[in-house]
């Protein structure tokens, strides 16, 4: 049994006790499968009210096993033993209850759901009574004197009367637990047992429909003047793209582009070609189906409720249409597309010192391609060299004499990658080599500088803005054949020669 069920049964039983329906309360308590120490205590108290001492003793035993520090359970079991005239066991339980008080004057069980205060002087009073029944009047008198130290104003008279009785060695009445006082479940837990509607019920404030009391969820209706006097039939929201169609005849595919369907299937037409073939989607699969095998389907709430599923027709299917320049499937992606999509431009990715892309029409000549790249780099076309590979070779170079059909045939998925190289020009013309003669000798102070002697001839490759010409990879100064030791050297030196 869950905690909520136990709590619900416990509260129901306590309510029956408040209505004086003790048999019903006891039956509800006994139906709880796993009672706690408090519920066992309540069961024992109900058995005591019914004078069923044996059942009460068993119930208090279970309560003490569940909670060995429940002093009031020891007190009640001691009273049960006293009524059964088992005074020694009664005295032992009263002593356990007194030790559980731990030197305090009382224990208030209100926080645990029991409106009762167990006083130490009352426990000592009953201990003295059990000892008096055993004939030990001296110890009984000692416990009563000890009870005076724990006395309260309200409990003073009963202890005085018990002392007078011990002097005369006459038994006195015990202090009993009040009847029909039971442990009750936490009221906060009980309040949570009832279901609560935190949101409340929605209410229609304004609507274009007269006497509209619908407050649930429905598709949005157009808020227009002179709207319909009755609610519009809600349409079923279409979760798939395309137009719904019903398959009339079985279609067996002959190619990988086509899709197998049977009569009664509902497919969604994505596109219809001029050759009577339709691109459809069915069960998350796309393919081609003859459009004359399909019939348009209007999906609405009324049609689903009244019409049901139509029976497949018995007439023979139409002939298979011929596929001309209609729809086809793209092998790379598997998507169905129109033949006119082949006119889409090609994307040319150009790898330069940086990578960029240009788009050209399919089958473009070399002039259009080089013009696009020239405009992108802001360089004349004569300074640009294109290649199909990263290494520029005679076979990979693309120029005006190259057959562009072989170049475009290398495209994959309407994309192609080319490599670009440039050379410097001055005023639109290639820069010619400049030969210089050294007027002075120069000894390099750094490893990257060039050593030369007076009279050496040097070819100028590039020229910086500072008096020094700094190295730029392989494009730098190279010595001519006059200096064999520096004939293959690339370096820089001051430009004052």
Structural notes for this entry:
This protein has helices at about 5-20, 20-30, 35-50, 55-65, 70-85, 85-100, 120-135, 135-150, 155-165, 185-190, 300-305, 365-375, 405-410; strands spanning about 105-110, 115-120, 245, 265-270, 275-280, 285-290, 295, 325-330, 335-340, 345-350, 355-360, 385, 395-400, 415-420, 425, 430, 435, 455-460, 475-480, 490. The chain is elongated. A hairpin with a 2-residue loop joins strand 15 (about 425) and strand 16 (about 430). The strands form six sheets. It has a five-stranded antiparallel β-sheet with strand order 6-5-4-3-7, with no helix packed on it. It has a five-stranded mixed β-sheet with strand order 11-10-14-12-13. Strands 17-18-19-20 form a four-stranded antiparallel β-sheet, with no helix packed on it. It is built from 13 helices and 20 strands. The longest helix has 16 residues, at about 5-20. By secondary structure, it is an alpha+beta fold. Helix 2 (about 20-30) packs antiparallel against helix 3 (about 35-50) and helix 5 runs antiparallel to helix 6. The termini are far apart.
Task: Give the SSE layout.
Elements: H1 3-18, H2 22-31, H3 37-49, H4 53-66, H5 71-83, H6 87-101, E1 106-108, E2 117-119, H7 120-133, H8 137-149, H9 156-167, H10 187-191, E3 243-247, E4 266-272, E5 277-282, E6 285-290, E7 294-296, H11 301-306, E8 327-329, E9 336-338, E10 346-351, E11 355-360, H12 366-377, E12 384-387, E13 397-398, H13 404-408, E14 415-422, E15 425-426, E16 429-430, E17 434-437, E18 457-460, E19 477-479, E20 490-491
Parallel strand pairs: 10-14
Antiparallel strand pairs: 1-2, 3-4, 3-7, 4-5, 5-6, 8-9, 10-11, 12-13, 12-14, 15-16, 17-18, 18-19, 19-20
Helix pairs in contact: 1-2, 2-3, 3-4, 4-5, 5-6, 6-7, 7-8, 8-9
């Amino acid at each position: 049994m869950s905690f909520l069920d136990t709590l619900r049964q416990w509260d129901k039983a306590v309510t029956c006790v408040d209505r004086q329906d003790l048999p019903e309360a006891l039956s509800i308590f006994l139906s709880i499968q796993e009672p706690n120490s408090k519920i066992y205590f309540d069961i024992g108290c109900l058995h005591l009210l019914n004078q069923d001492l044996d059942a009460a003793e068993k119930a208090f035993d279970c309560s003490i096993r569940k909670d060995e520090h429940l002093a009031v359970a020891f007190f009640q079991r001691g009273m049960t033993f006293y009524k059964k005239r088992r005074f020694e066991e009664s005295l032992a339980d009263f002593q356990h209850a007194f030790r559980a008080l731990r030197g305090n004057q009382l224990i208030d069980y209100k926080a645990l759901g029991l409106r009762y205060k167990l006083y130490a002087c009352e426990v000592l009073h009953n201990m003295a009574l059990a000892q008096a029944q055993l004939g030990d009047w001296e110890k009984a008198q000692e416990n009563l004197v000890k009870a005076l130290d724990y006395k309260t104003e309200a409990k003073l008279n009963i202890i005085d009367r018990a002392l007078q009785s011990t002097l005369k060695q006459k038994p006195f009445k015990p202090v009993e637990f009040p009847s029909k006082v039971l442990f009750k479940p936490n009221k906060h837990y009980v309040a949570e047992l009832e279901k609560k509607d935190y949101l409340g019920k929605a209410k229609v404030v304004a609507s274009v429909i007269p006497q509209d009391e619908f407050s649930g969820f429905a598709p949005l209706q157009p808020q227009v003047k002179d709207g319909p006097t009755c609610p519009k039939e809600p349409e079923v929201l279409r979760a798939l793209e395309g137009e719904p169609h019903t398959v009339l005849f079985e279609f067996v595919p002959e190619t990988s582009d086509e899709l197998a369907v049977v009569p009664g299937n509902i497919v969604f037409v994505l596109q219809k070609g001029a050759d009577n073939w339709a691109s459809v989607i069915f069960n998350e699969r796309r393919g081609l189906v003859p459009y004359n095998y399909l019939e348009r389907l209007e999906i609405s709430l009324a049609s689903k409720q009244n019409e049901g599923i139509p029976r497949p027709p018995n007439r023979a299917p139409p002939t298979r249409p011929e596929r001309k320049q209609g729809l086809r499937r793209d092998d790379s992606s598997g998507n169905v597309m129109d033949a006119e999509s082949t006119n889409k431009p090609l994307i040319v990715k150009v790898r330069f010192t940086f990578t960029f892309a240009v788009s050209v029409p399919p089958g473009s000549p070399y002039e259009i391609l080089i013009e696009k790249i020239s405009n992108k780099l802001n360089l004349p076309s004569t300074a640009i060299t294109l290649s199909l590979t990263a290494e520029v070779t005679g076979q990979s170079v693309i120029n005006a004499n190259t057959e562009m059909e072989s170049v475009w045939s290398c495209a994959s998925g309407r994309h192609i990658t080319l490599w670009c190289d440039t050379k410097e020009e001055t005023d639109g013309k290639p820069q010619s080599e400049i030969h210089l003669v050294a007027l002075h000798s120069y000894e390099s102070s750094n490893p990257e500088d060039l050593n030369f002697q007076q009279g050496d001839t040097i070819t100028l490759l590039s020229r910086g803005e500072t008096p020094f010409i700094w190295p730029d990879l392989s494009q730098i100064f190279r010595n001519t054949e006059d200096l064999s030791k520096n004939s293959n050297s690339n370096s820089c030196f001051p430009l004052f020669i």
